[in-house]
Amino acid sequence: MKTNYTYPFVILTVILLFCFVLNISLGSINIPFSEVLKGLFSTSDNEVWQVIISKVRLPKAITAIMVGSGLGISGLLMQTLFRNPLAGPFVLGISSGASLGVAIVILGSGLFGGYFATALISKWSIVISASLGSFLVLMAVLAVSSRVRDTMAILIIGLMFGSITSAVVSVLSYFSSAEQLQQYIFWGFGSLSNLSSKELLIFFAIYAVGLVLSIASIKGLNSLLLGDNYAKSLGLNLKQSRFIIILATSLIAGTITAFAGPIAFIGLAIPHLTRQVFKTTNHKILLPAVFLFGAVVMLICDTIAQVPNSDYTLPINAITALVGAPVVIWLLVRQRKMMF
Amino acid sequence: MKENKQHTILKVNQLSIGYKTKKAEMVIASNINFELQKGELIGLVGANGIGKSTLLRTLIKVQPELSGSILLNNKALNATSILELAQQLSIVLTEPLSSKNLSVYELVSLGRHPYTNWIGSLTQTDTVIINRALEQVNIIDLKDKKCYELSDGQLQKVMLARALAQDTDVIVLDEPTSHLDMYHKAYILKLLQKLAKETGKTILFSSHEIDLAIQLCDTMIVMQKEEVVYGQPCHLISEGVFETLFPKDLITFDENLGRFKVTK
Q1: SS3 state at B35
Q2: Pick the residue with more confidence: B51 or A129?
Q3: In CATH, what number is assigned to the domain containing residue A267?
Q4: Which of B140, B168, B179, B261 has the highest Cβ tally under 10 A?
């Protein structure tokens, strides 16, 4: 009974490549497809286009691919680990931790006064504070998960971190200036652009480590579908696998939130969408499929956010929610129940 | 009873089971002794709350023993690694599956995990064993169904097939007949008897179906408040073990029929 998945994989890859080129070609200035390909593989005759392609749009498209696939994969990992179809990178509190870190740096500067109070916060301090925040939450979650056997408890702790974050943010926003509030809100919109090649490299390095850990967890994830006791009876080292899965998610989702802001719905919706197309629960198939789906959806969302032929750029988070929320509702209505 | 070469698979000696907290030890049952042979079907019976599940959980290493020893294939259970154990002992539990979205084939093939490589690829041998397991419990026609489409009885057979695919010396089942109707109760237990005989596996199950267990089991372990006794059902009947199993105000054991009757 070996179902052949080569066909859908080939089609998805072709779609991904198409979306990649489309994403680069469309924007405030539209660049023809042929010139995009030229610009990617050699140099375009049009110098302005060449600069736009290699300095602006290519890094953005690569970021979109990493963000989409990364969030999708961490959503898949969380849904299986926490036996919950509604789990995603946000549920663990990783994004909340990152938001908390950013909120304290941007908004708290008003409270603490001094140098920060006037200067606009640099991108690096946001990245560092977001990473630090998600890392601290990760440590707390890991400490809890080694003590509490019940995965539901960890899930609730993640939700509590979300509440704490929003509480701290509201307190801080009371004391901060309009500019600071605006900067925090803009970070919260999410953004795929403005990553330098150095930032992109660091992003990729951490993302790659998380990806390798996820791939190493495939077998464990499959046996976790049966439940903890069954998984253990199949020879799985439960504690170790759980640690690796949580670590992989934190690395991926933490860096993404740090560099691109808290991007909603992709982590939750992509695994469900993938299961609709690839009717399997085997993570050996699901993981690469989620990677492709996540990348495609994120590229499309970003293309829409650019509003082709105009100077407007919509917040990416609004687009992912507009795309993601109906998908979740549609899945619920169609299936009457969500499964993982 | 045929007297073939006895081969002890699981030996339990002076075992005491229960829960250990930092402050105190709560002993649920102690002084448990039995030896389970190759190819035997063993029924574990006893009143609710007597510690059947605790005993099974101790035997499958989900919780540690308080004292005494458990020898699986002549090796102490607490010295056996998780992976070694996975190749010698498989389980069917009462807890629901995490994901009912698994197809029957996917679920049964998970039984091969202790033998597959790091990413879980199935070899030719694995496929043969999976198909044999599906055949042994008669569910070949269900193999492409999703688990949420199955009835309780079908699901129990699927879980049994998964345990068979794990290809272990011992299969432990915790109340495999709960939630099932009378026909399927008999069907599952009869199937267990057939499998023990045909495959030479030692199959241990806990159950409240004492009547059926008496008819089908080679050996029974009866848990009572004072002691845990084990032996062939006919011996246990003549020793009057079942009469003291429950309070006498409602049901009594009829030795001649080999079953319980409601007192009039």
Answers
A1: strand
A2: B51
A3: 1.10.3470.10
A4: B168
- What residues form DSSP beta bridges with A50? none
Decide if A199 contacts A127 (C-beta within 8 A): yes
Query: Is B80 in the A-facing interface, judged by CB distances under 8 Å?
Result: no
A235 CB neighbours in chain B (<8 A) are 82-83, 85-87, 113-114
Residue contacts between A and B (CB atoms, under 8 Å): 86
Q: DSSP class of residue B66?
A: S
Residue A109 C-alpha, separation from nearest chain B C-alpha, in angstroms: 46
ipTM of the complex, rounded to two decimals: 0.93
pLDDT tens for residues B193-251?
A: 999 999 999 999 999 999 999 999 999 999 998 889 999 999 999 998 898 888 888 88
Say if strands B41-46 and B202-206 run parallel, antiparallel, or are unpaired: parallel
Q: Say if residues A74 and A206 touch (Cβ distance below 8 Å).
A: no
- Is it the case that residue A119 has pLDDT exceeding 60? no
CB contact under 8 A, B101 and A275: yes
Residue in A closest to B113 by C-alpha: A234
Tens-place pLDDT, residues A141-176 = 767 766 776 667 777 877 888 888 889 888 988 888
Kindly calculate the radius of gyration of chain A based on its CA atoms and give it in whole angstroms: 20
Residue A113 has pLDDT above 80, yes or no: no
- B239, two tokens: 């020793």
- The residue of chain B nearest to residue A79, with distances taken between CA atoms, is B99
| pLDDT at position A313 | 86
Q: Pick from B99, B101, B113: which is nearest to A235 by CB?
A: B113
A42 domain-assigned: yes
The CATH number that domain B1-88+169-264 falls under is 3.40.50.300
**Averaged pLDDT of chain A:** 85
Which chain A residue has its CA at the smallest distance from B148's CA? A339
Domain-embedded: residue A238: yes
Asked whether residue A104 is assigned to any structural domain, the reply reads: no
User: According to the model, what pLDDT value does residue A111 have?
Assistant: 65
Q: Which of B60, B101, B106 sits opposite A340 (nearest CB)?
A: B101
| Residue A197 domain boundaries | 6-91+193-335
